[in-house]
Each structure stands twice: as structure tokens, then as C-alpha cells.
Amino acid sequence: MRKQFDAVASKWDAMRDPGHLRPYEQALDAVSPPPARALDLGTGTGEGAFAIARRFPETEVVGVDLADQMLAKARSKTPSELEGRVRFERADASALPYPDESFGLVAHANMIPFFDELTRVLAAGGQAIFAFSGGAETPIYVPAERLREELARRGFTEFADFAVGQGTALLARKGAQT
Predict the structure, then answer these.
(1) Which of 34, 25, 35, 155 has the alpha carbon at shortest distance from 103?
(2) pTM, to two decimals
(3) Closest Cα partner for 40 from 65, 15, 67, 57?
């Protein structure tokens, strides 16, 4: 199973065009205030984690993935100027090894959203990003309406939509009480 997952993850990474993170980055531009800590779920080769670290120079960034091969690539690609603030860890997004409310930002790029877990680790007032580089054509895609519905049930508010090329993103803020 692990080899199959690694192969699919590697194939998906190879299919990405250079602008695959544009919707993700556009949503990052709307994040306020800057988070002290951010989590990039399904980080793959780390591009999302690097985008967060570049956008927020004071933020500690953790990129997590199940695929050891992807984590090794992410670690090897980490620019020297980001080494002290970006780290990569193996973790299952359905059972994250972090305490409740540990992050001010939880971001996903082309990743299955584990709503309960992201709600648990996101601090009150924190924000979540869900980006799909190919919009509805993304292999792992969740329509914005479904994201809003699931998140609203968990106390999220202040939704914002972004579209760049074929890509889409949704930004949502977790309410003070969930």
C-alpha cells in the first residue's frame, strides 16, 4: 500500500505545472494576521510550506505528509534561508500528533480535508486554506459549497473564494468557539 501511495504522490507531483500554487498563494495573501505557526497538510515536496514561509517571514511552518519519499524531497529542496523555520514531519492528517489549537493557519493544496482534525489543531480565530490547482479537474477536489457546509457546522466563518486560471481556493476563519 505504501509503495502505491508513494507512486501516486510522485506522479501527481510530476503533473503539476509551474503555477499550480497560484490559488494557494492568492489565499495566503488574504490571511491576516500572520500566524505564529502554520501547518501545511499533504505537503508533498514542500512547495506549499515554502510559500507560507516566504509570505510570513516570522512564521514557524510544519509540513506533514504520509509519503516518506515526498518528505525526503521536501527536506532536500529546503532553501537555506528557510531551514530554521520550516520542518517536515511524517504524520497522518486524520490523526495529527499535535495538541489542540496549535496552529494559526492550516493549509491544504490538492489534499483531502479531514475536517474534524483540522478544526482540532487550528486555534480559535485561525484560518484554513483549501486550494485545488486544477479546480474541479483536480484528482482530489471538494466543491467550495461542500467545504463551506462542513466548515460552518464546525464553527468556521468569514469565507473567501479565490480563482486563478483553472485553480480555486477557499479561505475560512475558525470562530472563537466551536
Answers:
(1) 35
(2) 0.88
(3) 65
